[in-house]
Amino acid sequence: MGLGDKISNKAQETVGKAKEGIGGATDNERLQAEGAQDKAGANAKQAGEHVKDAAKDITGR
Asked: What gap in Å lies between CA 4 and CA 40, rounded to an integer?
């Protein structure tokens, strides 16, 4: 996983956490849901990148 990808995914996760928190504090269900979706998307991307990294380690490519 490239450094840029790691930073981008972590930023998306952080924004998602913030949206979710703000949505909860303001009783804004839409913002909470959007934050949860952002976090889930970032986590899925990170998981995919980890799989690619593991495959590279195994194959040596």
From this structure: 19
State the pTM of this model.
0.78
Please give the angle made by the CA atoms of 9, 25 and 16, to the nearest 5 degrees: 10
In this structure, the number of other CB atoms found within 10 A of the CB of residue 21 comes to 13
Between the alpha carbon of residue 10 and those of residues 13, 17, 23, 47, 49, the distances in Å are: 5, 10, 20, 12, 12
pLDDT digits (tens, 9 = 90+) for 10-57: 999 999 999 999 999 999 999 999 999 999 999 999 998 888 888 888
